[in-house]
Design a protein that fits this description.
There is one protein chain. By secondary structure, the protein is of the alpha/beta class. The chain folds into two domains: 145 residues, Oxidized Rhodanese, domain 1, CATH 3.40.250; 114 residues, 3-Layer(aba) Sandwich (Oxidized Rhodanese, domain 1), CATH 3.40.250. The protein is 30% helix and 10% strand. It is built from ten helices and nine strands. A five-stranded parallel sheet has the order 1-5-4-2-3. Strand 8, helix 9 and strand 9 form a beta-alpha-beta unit. Helix 4 crosses helix 9. The protein is globular, with a radius of gyration of 18 Å. It starts with a strand and ends in an 11-residue tail after the last helix.
Length: 273
Amino acid sequence: MLVSTAELSSDPTPCRLFDCRHDLAKPDWGEAEYRKAHIPGAVFASLDRDLSAPKNGRNGRHPLPDPEVFAQWLSSVGMQPTDRVVCYDASNGAMAARLWWLLRWLGHEDVAVLDGGFAKWTREGLPVTSELPSFPATSYPDEIDGNRAVGARTIQRNLNGLFLLDARSPARWRGEQEPIDPEAGRIPGALNRFNGDNVNADGTFKDSFSLKNDFLKILGSRNPSEIVHYCGSGVAACHNLLAMEIAGLPGGKLYAGSWSEWIADPSRPREKG
């Protein structure tokens, strides 16, 4: 699930690189930075344009893309089902994890996140370029693994029986503050695992042993496949899904609409505290 900067820079095996840098407060920042400098061969993946469907006011800030549309984008940048893929973002992998999850959703297993991201790559003086790569178009299949995601209706119907895990900061989970969405709080019954706790101070992931211990404290006797992960808009939740896979605890599901979709319907219950 992870590739180190040393491995990526020294591995002669060709792979497809995707630059997923994004700032929720400055949506154009990631692509602007990419055009200034990126890892050679990397294609830019826009969270808003490529990794999400259009917003309609009811489906959250970053709804899942239509599988056919997402596969068409992969085809346009020359992706093959047999490609080895490495995704990266500015640092801790939260944005890159969204593309990692989407590719797994489409059945693409050979995909990893660059540990420490572009920040670690540049700190180590590894090569960058402003040259935009070009790849011949392909035809990528659009079949998805439907067991990896759940929708708002499923959650609402089974609210008392689901194991929900919120990846937002503790203050947002408690409903004490909400810097992005119009309403603070959480889905009733959800536990909290801040995705920022998955990484070290330098943006690299904690070791698998530490991550496993952390998540087992939350899981108790439950199976990892019982967890439904959510956050504000289905991005940070993918980071928790990635961390659990690194820990050897696969099988969790994503509620991609997350809090931003949940609160769009006033009939859905909320909780604070």
